[in-house]
Amino acid sequence: MINFKDVVDSDILFSDSGGFVSANYYLFKHISKTPFSRFVLREAVKGTPIFRFGSGELKLMLVSGIHGNEVPPQIASLLLMEKLLNSNLNGTVYFIPFSSPKSIMQNVRWFNNNDLNRSSAISGSLTNTILKKAHELNINALADFHSTSINSNPGREGIFCSLKPLYKSYEIGIYISKKIGSEVLSFDMAGSVFNGALEDECNLSNIPAVTCEVLSPHGYAEEESYLRSLEQMEAFLSYFNVL
Q1: How far apart (Å, rounded) are the C-alpha atoms in residues 137 and 91?
Q2: Is 134 helix (H, G, I), strand (E, B) or coil?
Q3: By three-state DSSP, how is residue 141 classified?
Q4: The domain that contains 62 carries what CATH number?
Q5: Domain residues for 73?
Q6: How many domains does the chain have?
C-alpha cells in the first residue's frame, strides 16, 4: 500500500475543524474512491489539511471549502490533486481542499456559527490561520474557490478581484475570464465591500488573490459545476505557467 505521506507533503493547520467529509452525500457521490482520495479524507478527520505538490521557487495556494456547503470546489480540488500527483510542476502548489471538514460533513455554510469568509482578519480564527500560513510559506498568489446559488451573492459565475492595492489581483481575474469565460467581478479597493474575506485580507497584506465562484445550489453538486470549478483552478495555475 502506498504511503502518500512519502509522495505528498501534508500537515494539519487547524485541529478543531476536523470532520468525516465522506458523510457529505454529494461530495462522496462525485469523487473517485482512489487510495489517494481516501488518504486526503482521512487527513481531514484530523482538522484542516494542507498538501504540497512540487518544489519550485514560485509558490501558489488554492483554497476551497471556506463555506462548507459550497461543494463543487471541494470536489474539484480532489480531482486536480489527483491529476497533479505524477506531474512535473514549474513551481510549488499548496492545496487546502477542505478548509472546514466539520462544516462539509454537516453540509452547512458556517463553522461553529461563524462565517469564515468574514473573519480572516481575526487573530486565532481558522481563516486567519490560513492567511498566516500563506505568509509563512511566502506564497506568491492565492485563489479561493467557492460556489454560489442563484438567489445569493453574487448569484452567478465569476471571479472576484480588485485593482488596489495589488493590480496583480485584477490581472489574474482578467486572465481567468478570458481563458474560460467566467465574468470579472472587480472592485476598486480590496476590502471596500466585504470585511474579513480571505481574498481581501491577502490583497491587503501583499499576497495577490482572487475568489472564483461557480453556480450551484448550496449543499449540492453536479458534474457541470465542479468541472467549471476545476477549469477555474487550472486557469489560475496556467496564468503562472505552473502546468
Answers
A1: 13
A2: helix
A3: strand
A4: 3.40.630.10
A5: 4-239
A6: 1
Q: Verify cis geometry, omega within 30 degrees of 0, for the bond prior to 72.
A: no
Q: Which residue type occupies 18?
A: G
What is the end-to-end Cα distance of the chain in Å, rounded? 28
Length of the chain: 243
Per-residue pLDDT of the chain (243 residues; tens, 9 = 90+): 556 666 678 999 999 999 999 999 999 999 999 999 999 999 999 999 999 999 999 999 999 999 999 999 999 999 999 999 988 899 999 999 999 999 999 999 999 999 999 999 999 999 999 999 999 999 999 999 999 999 899 999 999 999 999 999 999 999 999 999 999 999 999 999 988 999 999 999 999 999 999 999 999 999 999 999 999 999 999 999 998
Prediction pTM value: 0.97
> Which grid coordinates are listed for 69?
456547503
Cell of 188: 476598486
